[in-house]
Every structure is written in C-alpha cells, then in structure tokens.
Amino acid sequence: MRKLIFVLSFVGLVAGTVVAYVSAIEQPALPPAFTPPTNPYPNGIYAEGIVESDQPSGENINVYPEVLGTVKQILVAEGQEVKAGAPLLLLDDSIQSATVEQLKSQSEAALTLLNELKAQPRQETLDVNEAQVVAAQATLKTAQDELDKQQAAYDLNPKSISKDALDTAANVVLTAKTNLEVARKQRDLTKAGAWVYDINNQERTYNALFKSYLSASALLAKYTLRAPRDGIVLTINPTVGSFVSTQGAYDTYTQGMDPVIVLGSPHAHLNVRCYVDEILVPRLPPPAKIKAQMSVRGSNVKVPLVYVRVQPNISTKIELSDQRLERVDVRVLPVIFRLQQPKDLIVYPGQLVDIFIGE
After folding, report:
1. Do 327 and 250 belong together in one domain?
2. Which of 107, 122, 140, 195 lies 20 to 30 Å (CA to CA) from residue 226?
C-alpha cells in the first residue's frame, strides 16, 4: 500500500513538472488578419465614414408610397438598374379601381345628358308638336264650321236652334282656339331647344364629375410606385402581402419603419460621407488642399478619395447608427468625398469605413 502511494506521488510530481514546463513555453503570436489602419498624413485627422451612392444632394433615394395598402406585386429585384418612371412595386388597388370606374360612368352619363340638351330640338319630337298643331287647327275648323251652321240656322229661324246649343258651339270654338294656341306654344318651346340654364347646370355637373374622375385616376396611379429618377435598386424592404403606409414598411428586426425601396445612383463611382468631430473642424485643410484616404475595415485596402463638398451644417452625431441615443453630446461636420470602386474589393453603399484627411 505504501509502495502504491509512493508511486502515485512520484507520477503526480512528474506530471506537474511537465505541465509547468509546457505552460511556460511562449507561443508565437498569430499574425493579424489585416493591418490596422494608420494615418498616412503627418497632421491628418480621423473620421468615421459611410459609403453611399453619388447624389448631387442628400444621400440615397428613399421611395415611400403616397397611399397605404397591401403589396400586390414587386416588379424589380435588388441590384437591378431602373430608368426614371419605371414601375417598381404595385399595391392592391381593387377599391380605388372600382371608384374610378364608377366616377367614369357617372361622368359619361352626365356628358350624354349634356349632349342631349345641346342637340335639342329632336326632330321626331318637333314633328309630333307640328302634328299636334295641325290636329288643333283641324279641331278648330270643325268647331267653327259647326258654329257657323248653327248660327245660320238660328238667324233663319231662332226656334230651330236653342240658345243653349248655340252657346255650347261657341264655347267649343273658344276651347279649340285655346288648344291651338297651346299646341303652337309647345311647338315653339320645342323648337327653341333646351333652356340655357339647364345646359349650364348640366355642363357644371359634368365638369365636376369629370374632375372627380381625373382625381380618382391620379390617386389610382399612386398605387404603382415608380422610380423618381435613374438608379439602382439597393434595398426592397417589404414582401408581397406586406402592408405599407406613407411612413414606409415595418421592419421586424429593428421594429421601426424603413423606406419601401431604396435607390442608389447608377454611376460607376460612389460617395463617402464622413463625419468630422467639431473639435477637429479647425484642423480641416482648405478645400483646394484637402487630401483623403479611405481604409476598408477588415482588409488592407486603402483607397484615395476626391473631395466633393462640405455640408456646412454641424449637427448631432446620430447618422451612423440612426439611434437618437448615440452620443448626442458629440457634434460633427459632414464632408463628402468620391471614390472609384476598388479593383480587388467590392464596396457597398451603407458600409462603414475609416477616413483620414490631410493636405
């Protein structure tokens, strides 16, 4: 038993010695995956930057719908080049389409009635009125002849015709004359056509309905999102069946609202927007002397930049993460540079980079 304890103690001592020796051996450090960026300018300043498409002003083109609805069809793909006015996305427009058709039918009906008023008198109606005048004239002649006969008989022998019968015949003649006058006036009214006030009222009714139809048609066109200018589709946030509004599309991951579609510039070059801390702004060289270099994070690629412009407005530093809590005590000056796409590495809009500025 004592021998076993002695052997085990000896083995443990040897093992501990070996472990201590192995642990004391220094392992060579692994080479870095990439060389950390260094300032290439003696008195250069550092700024964080973000790659974006080349725009004469602003950043990328964020496309929002002017109406809300459910996405019915997506007509483009990410990375696709589009021309100004090209349809990008369709929203469900079934209700608005029915409204447009209804207003179109109402305006067409109002126009038909207006044309009908302007086309009066209708020849067939005028012919009926003329026939009624002729019939009234014939009725008057018949009544007048009957009165003349009875008057002649009365003049020859007052006892042959009663005074009452003679008065009745005279009243029939008066009634026939009145009916003839009414028929003539009705004919003249028909011949005069529609009343000008009726035409004006119907014309205004048609104009109101037609403008409502045009307004509804213009609103219907809003259900198709179109490219505001030539560009490249960078991002399509919703999917078919998603609900979008004038505030954009809901992002499940960020729980915020994003643009429905983001377009970039079709130019071969990109822009880099860097944010210079206000403390370093006095050290910025004059625009004519500004030199800049971009380092792409995670690589050894360094790209020369060309100065484009300064946005002369120092603002709170919230742009890079879009979070209102991001060091709002720091204020920065946006400076825009232009870069050519590196040959050995693809740079994408939205990518964060390191910028060194010197002269």
Report:
1. no
2. 107
